[in-house]
């Protein structure tokens, strides 16, 4: 146990968040700025395709913990830019880990459900074998290993299917399509755990100063879904909330017939989050409940924007 960072973090130590313009990073930065000093790192502070820039960029700052959420998160882009994927998903996290280890700082690295092959419908545990089937998943798994090789005290958080207010994601796209078109479809043979970025920020806070939170940890809202069932729930909840839809049905399609994919996608990658529950005593709420809260807030914002346009 490294008492240095534990003590500093329990006294509301400074958190440097890399990827602070992203879906997860922006939510973390907003939440933690309420009660501690946050140093938000965006593209202009560090190009994460340049691991050699990590040390000089971090050395200019005083921090007690780093959370790394940046990188090429587009799975198909990783397939066409494997070198870029390795740099930002493996080499930059390794370099951050090295600086954090030298400073005695906490490091939380964010990874993905795509480290799994996806051939087993049972929820995946942290101890299950990771066998990624695409460039993104391989670069993220190598990143996890690189970070934990620097120190097993560091924490790797695997997350999945994020949605939230800071960047467009699947629910926003499905909703937009259903408001503009009478045909909406989504993939039915791919399953994971939809996860609300605002909930994530609450779950991560008690992990910041907890020395037992080390190694790999799966974090997600409770329950799992196919993309198609997720989309259908978006439309059911959106209609209930008051959104005017041109269709309220999401038609099922399969991964093999979807024209846009360059990378192969794993079929089943939902998480077992019992390790997190045991560690913190927190049971993540069902994803449907989190999604409903998100859509209610989105609808309120939508009404304000529509009124301003009138
Ligand atoms: N989103 C999901 O459903 C999902 C699922 C599983 C795992 N994850 C993991 O969760 C973490 C957070 O994901 P997210 O959804 O928040 O991702 P995101 O919204 O795509 O944010 C990634 C951030 O990285 C930044 N970035 C990209 N290339 C950069 C570069 N060369 N230099 C500096 N910054 C760069 C982006 O900056 P700009 O804003 O300037 O483009 C963006 O703010 C990632 O580790 C991801 O792999 C996400």
| Helix vs. strand class | alpha/beta
The CATH topology of the domain at 3-163 and 195-222 and 270-285 corresponds to: Rossmann fold
Taking strands numbered 1, 2, ... along the chain, how are they ordered across the largest sheet? 2-1-3-4-5-10
Main beta-sheet annotation: 6 strands, parallel
Structure description:
This protein is about 45% helix and about 15% strand. It is of the alpha/beta class and about 300 residues long. It has a domain at about 5-165 and about 195-220 and about 270-285: 3-Layer(aba) Sandwich (Rossmann fold), CATH 3.40.50.720. The protein is globular, with a radius of gyration of 19 Å. The mean pLDDT is about 95. NADP nicotinamide-adenine-dinucleotide phosphate binds next to helix 2 and strand 4.
Protein traits:
alpha/beta; Rossmann fold; six-stranded parallel β-sheet; two-stranded parallel sheet; 12 strands; binds NADP nicotinamide-adenine-dinucleotide phosphate
Layout of secondary structure:
Layout: H1 3-10, E1 15-18, H2 23-32, E2 38-41, H3 54-59, E3 65-68, H4 75-80, H5 82-103, E4 106-112, H6 135-150, E5 155-159, E6 162-163, H7 170-180, E7 184-187, E8 191-192, E9 195-196, H8 197-204, E10 215-218, E11 225-226, H9 227-241, E12 250-253, H10 274-280, H11 287-309
Parallel strand pairs: 1-2, 1-3, 3-4, 4-5, 5-10, 6-9, 7-12
Antiparallel strand pairs: 8-11
Helix pairs in contact: 2-8, 5-6, 7-9, 9-11
The structure holds NADP nicotinamide-adenine-dinucleotide phosphate (NAP).
NADP nicotinamide-adenine-dinucleotide phosphate binds at residues 19, 21-25, 43, 46-49, 69-73, 88, 110, 112-113, 159-162, 167.
């Amino acid at each position: 146990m490294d008492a240095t960072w534990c003590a500093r973090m329990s006294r509301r130590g400074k958190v440097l968040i890399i990827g602070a313009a992203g879906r997860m990073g922006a939510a973390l930065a907003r939440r933690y700025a309420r009660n501690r000093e946050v140093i938000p790192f965006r593209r202009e502070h560090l190009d994460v395709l340049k691991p050699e820039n990590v040390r000089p960029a971090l050395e200019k700052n005083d921090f007690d913990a780093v959370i790394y959420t940046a990188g090429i998160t587009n799975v198909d882009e990783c397939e066409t830019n494997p070198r870029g994927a390795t740099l930002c998903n493996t080499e930059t996290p390794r370099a951050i880990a090295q600086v954090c280890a030298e400073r005695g700082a906490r490091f939380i690295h964010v990874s993905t459900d795509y480290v799994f092959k996806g051939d087993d419908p049972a929820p995946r545990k942290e101890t299950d074998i990771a066998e990624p089937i695409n460039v993104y998943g391989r670069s993220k798994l190598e990143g996890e290993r690189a970070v934990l090789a620097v120190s097993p005290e560091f924490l790797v958080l695997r997350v999945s299917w994020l949605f939230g207010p800071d960047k467009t994601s699947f629910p926003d796209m499905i909703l937009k399509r259903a408001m503009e078109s009478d045909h909406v479809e989504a993939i039915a043979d791919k399953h994971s755990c939809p996860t609300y970025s605002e909930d994530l920020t609450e779950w991560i806070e008690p992990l910041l100063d907890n020395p037992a939170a080390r190694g790999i940890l799966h974090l997600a809202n409770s329950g799992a879904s196919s993309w198609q069932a997720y989309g259908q729930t978006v439309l059911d909840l959106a209609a209930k909330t008051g959104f005017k839809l041109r269709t309220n049905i999401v038609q099922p399609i399969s991964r093999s017939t979807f024209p846009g994919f360059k990378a192969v996608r794993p079929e089943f990658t939902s998480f077992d989050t019992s390790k997190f529950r045991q560690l913190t005593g927190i049971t993540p709420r069902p994803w449907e409940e989190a999604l409903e809260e998100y859509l209610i807030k989105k609808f309120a914002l939508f009404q304000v924007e529509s009124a301003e346009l009138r």
